[in-house]
User: Fold this.
Amino acid sequence: MSKPDELLVDVAALVESGHSNQMTLTVVAGGAVITGRLAPEAVWRQRVSEVLADSASLNEFSAVFTTTTREQKAPTHLHFHVARILQGTVGIPETGGMYRVAIDDVSAWTMGDFSYSDH
Assistant:
């Protein structure tokens, strides 16, 4: 998108201001469909930092995610957790992952996420 969708920016701003991680969203970005829950950036960064800190080979990267972010008027990224990239009838990874998506890269979106069933 050349100009970010103002409604999507407003949704991201509400997630940021409320520090809630219950908003589910599905987006198309770069041809990929990503579905999951949004988290405030600070919460997302903290969780990524914790995961990296627990890794023997990646723990040195943990501190990068705990640095404070500069204050911005409007969010520029969506921060997904427990999210999956849809590939056919499968969500990758099965357990959900942590994704950061630039709002400028979102070409389509809808409220809610997709659930999966093995049946």
Remarks:
- The chain has a mean pLDDT of 86.
